[in-house]
Amino acid sequence: MTSVTKWALAAAVLAVALIVALLPRGGDDTAAKPSEDLAPARSAAALQPCPAPGSAPPVKQLEGVTADCLGDGARVDVGKALAGAPVLVNVWASWCEPCRTELPVLQEYAKQPGAVRVLGVQVQSPAEDGLNLLAQLGVHLPSVYDGGGQSGPVRTALKVPSSLPASYLVTAAGEIRFIANPRVFGNTDQVRAAVEGAS
């Protein structure tokens, strides 16, 4: 093999390697890391288990919508998991300052007698950042991860506004009601009043 042929071959190999390196990768840069990478963060966060599907018909607006359980990475059929009993759904992101105030309030509310179930939905931020935030705040609410991009399936189905946090009451009958007042919960009395008002 002549030196010219060797150089041509080397140049061709480098060109192919460069093309492969520049090809777009699937997924979002902020998407969840593989579950084994999240194991330490999941352990530190110690989240409550995500709700399991019940026997009631799925919530129509969320039918067929799935997300990853933030606590263990298992797939959750959100429409089935929220069916049959009232649930307060809170959409948040790790970069959202008002969410940092509200999440501990929701944790306290969830511990009170007569509270409805609370499910967190992390959006627009890496799963690891969300787990670290929940661990830092001491919030152990069950939560699903709706992806790091702008439009995860849960967020799309709920038509979540651009400003976060956003809360919804899913009624026992499967109706979804956006809670507009207050937009950010400052205490458990506000949560209880909003849930009762939306029921």
TrEMBL record:
CDD domains: TlpA_like_family. Keywords: Cytochrome c-type biogenesis, Disulfide bond, Redox-active center, Signal-anchor, Transmembrane. Residues 33-58 are annotated as: Disordered. Residues 51-199 form the Thioredoxin domain. It is found in: Cell envelope. This is TlpA disulfide reductase family protein.
